[in-house]
Amino acid sequence: MSLATETIASLRKKLLAGEITSVQIVDDIAAAIEAKDGQIDAYNNYNIEAAREAAQNADLSLPLGGIPIAIKDNINVIGEPTTCASKFLEGAYNSPYDATVTAKLKAAGAIPLGRTNMDEFAMGSTTENSAIKATKNPHALGHVPGGSSGGSAAVVAADTAIASLGSDTGGSIRQPASHCGVVGLKPSYGRVSRYGLVAFASSLDQIGPMTKSVEDAALILNAISGEDKADSTCLDAEVPDFTANLGEDIAGMKLGVPAEFFGEWLDEGVKANIDAAIKKLEDAGAEIVPISLPSTQYAVATYYIIAPAEASSNLSRFDGVRYGNRADKPENMLDLYRRSREEGFGPEVKRRIILGTYVLSSGYYDAYYTRAQKVRTLIQREFTEAFEKVDAIVTPVCPTAAPEFGQDSDNPLQRYHADICTISANLAGICGISVPCGTVDNATGEKLPVGLQILGPHLGEAAVLKVAANYEKLR
Question: Which residues participate directly in catalysis (predicted)?
Fold first, then answer.
């Protein structure tokens, strides 16, 4: 069996026992990429020789020593292209530094291997918005892998990576994890440094792991968490060993089930899998507590004011002057700005910049942006009150399984509404995980994965991982 199919935990045991070498892992991943990625299109670039060289010098005494990990193409890796799947940066930018998470992975002994495809500048939920290629779902090639971290989910699901890093602004780790049948963890805001992540919406973005098991997610979270002086929003909070309580049972834990996450919009097949998962948790001794989060109905509208507003500011740095795409023979400075951005950005990015600029403009700032921030506070408050009653919250990740390519492509509002189950966690700054909980059949009988979402309070990753690990064993 290829080593590319195994988990971090199992590979580490074999490495420490001297049964395998890190070079063998890299070689098996290289063979898997060669065999599969031509169909799936999940990698934007990779350097097997550099990874093999790092593997030869791997320090196996470190927590992730000898383990190759793929990294989303908006997280900087020194000397490698960072494209954000955009024409603006493709072929025009090699990172001069490591993101903090990249440096921490290396310090833990991991080997960065490959940059994964994504929706352009992380704006989208299908990876169809990539300007480079459209990544396919490994379980059904006619279906999307989700987004924006679609490539990061697909490489783990296809066994062309052991694990990967993604970023989550409104569900971009959890949703593709659900669609591809892998584990995806969004840490609490401030738990993991954002330094070196190309910003989409700075108050919402967070980096996290995508893995084949809950234990692997905990192992990576151990490595990438912690204070960072380069990121003022990164908290100086204790970093526990997130693997420590994975084996404990959940008897007596209170798990909230919010009615607002189970509306008529929820697909029957998805709901059946979620209901079955909740029943398993109850049978394992957890107390299921009905709760209400009434402001959930405003979450999508709130998010699509705040996130585009921050994006319009963050993406103003892409002007054709300092780096990236530059229009040829501009007539003047204004023409340089206009044409560089027109040629460099794709339709979804332009849509969000225009929307964000509008809600921040004179006469509309208070009507839209200020009001959205007030609603965000209500959402945060409701979660805080809920977590005074329950230890964690369980919900669907997505209203449906992975859609087909082109589905709703002419109706962006429909796609925005599909984020209803994931957006609230980003607005509230809390942690959440998607863990596989079953499948539904598509029209041709292919099995499409479904994910169970487990949400925890701010800095409550240990509880979320404990519930997820228990469910993983039950399933």
Answer: 72, 148, 172
For residue 451, the tally of other CB atoms under 10 A from its CB is: 32
* CA–CA distance, 211 with 224 (Å, rounded to integer): 14
Report how far residue 274's alpha carbon sits from residue 291's, in angstroms, rounded to the nearest whole number. Answer: 16
Q: How many CB atoms lie within 10 A of CB 71?
A: 26
Return the bridge partners of 168, or none.
none
| Residue 17 in this model has a pLDDT that exceeds 90 | yes
pLDDT at 408: 77
Strand 183-186, strand 111-116: pairing: unpaired
Composition of the chain by helix, strand, coil, percent to 5: 40, 15, 45
Looking up tokens 């584990």, which residue turns up? Answer: 183
pLDDT at 393: 98
**DSSP states of 145-209 as a string?**
--SSSHHHHHHHHTTS-S-EEEE-SSSTTHHHHHHHTSEEEEPPTTTB--TTBPPSSTTT--EEE
Give the model confidence (pLDDT) of 213-229 as tens digits: 999 999 999 999 999 99
Residue 386 has pLDDT above 90, yes or no: yes
Tokens 């169970």 belong to residue = 452
Domains delineated in the chain: 3-224 (3.90.1300.10)
Q: Token digits for 258?
A: 């919010």
Q: Which two tokens stand for residue 466?
A: 């404990």
pLDDT greater than 90 at residue 310: yes
Residue 410 — pLDDT band, cuts 50, 70, 90?
confident
- Integer Cα distance of 350 and 341 in angstroms: 9
CA distance 116 to 46: 9
**Phi, psi (deg, nearest 5) at residue 59:** -95, 100
Predicted confidence at residue 346, as pLDDT, reads 97
- DSSP-H helix ranges across 422-460: 423-428
**Starting at the edge strand that comes first in sequence, how are the strands of the sheet with 431-441 ordered?**
43-45, 111-116, 68-72, 164-167, 207-211, 183-186, 431-441, 447-456, 392-396, 254-258, 287-291
Q: Taking the model in full, what pTM does it have?
A: 0.97
Residues forming the active site: 72, 148, 172
CA separation for the pair 179, 143 (Å, rounded): 9
Under 8 Å between Cβ of 419 and 125:
yes
- Rounded mean pLDDT of 381-404? 98
In the numeric block, which tokens belong to residue 228? 């960072």
Q: How far apart are CA 475 and CA 465, in angstroms?
A: 15
pLDDT, mean of residues 199-208: 98
Is residue 78 left, alpha or beta, with left meaning phi > 0 and alpha meaning psi from -120 to 50?
beta
**CB-based contact 454:392 (threshold 8 Å):** yes
- Give residues with Cβ within 8 angstroms of 313, minimum separation 6: 356, 360
